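help with this.
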Amino acid sequence: MGIFLSAAPLATCFAGALAYGITSGHPAIANWRLLFLVEGLPTVCMAAVVFFYLPDSPHQAKFLTEDEVRIAVARGVRQVGTTERVGHIKLKDVLVTFLDIKPWFTALMYFSCNVAFSSLPVFLPTILQEMGFSSVEAQGLSAPPYFLSFLLTIATSFIADKTQQRGLVIIACAIVGGIGYIMLAVTTGIGPRYAGVFLAAAGIFPAISNILPWVTNNQGNDTRRGVGIVMLNAIGQCGPLLGTNLYPTSEAPFYVKGQAVCAGFMFLVAILAFCLRCILVWENKKLDRQYGTLEEQRARLASAEGTEKDEVEASAGVENYGPMYRYIL
């Protein structure tokens, strides 16, 4: 997910220059129409390719060999702890997910990030122009912060996976982003404000790239993961409705209110991540009391032999809330 989402800041590095190049001539249609066609049509074409190429299961993956298909299926069995993965939606799990507080936390975190995420790419060139740079210079100076964000989006996702501490990574990213927006709100010098842009971009995108996988980390089966992603987007995508209205021209050149609101939402992300992490710690302790710690379960598996070992391993799925399932903190 980190690699997938890193395409957003990387694309934004070139978006200004691309838009300038597309609209700088004298096309036969309006510039905005041409921009929509040039940047939108490749996505439409790739959607058709993905529809036919993206498999629904290992058995339908034409790019896998027979041995690789068997390995993928066996891995799925070990993950779930049953003979086959769930291939349909369970309505009970849909309702349970809506009643679970955890996906509501991540959805509100995504909403808060999107308030800042939607405003920064749209208004950053304007903010840079207000600092005294020309339109072309503003487009060029907006690229370095996004490139840093591209690198951090991948790096923080990797660190969170290796340490199994996604909540702490989100908290750190949100605080960095919030500090960047505070600098944009309270300073007037070009240097501090441009540094604030770096911090804001370095916090927003990496935070989002870790919020999305945290949803799937915190739901133990396919149906609940799917519903969690639906909730995340249904609530989170309302953030731009607020974010894109925070920078009226009447508040130029510093846009103090818009910067302050974005800072507040980034700090709210940190608070929500801390609260959710505390809930997950409590949930994991309950699972330890119910099934024994992971170390104890692995010791039992190591001491088992023959058929008994196969039965213990099959029942100890790390998904579907099996004995070895634990939430990623």
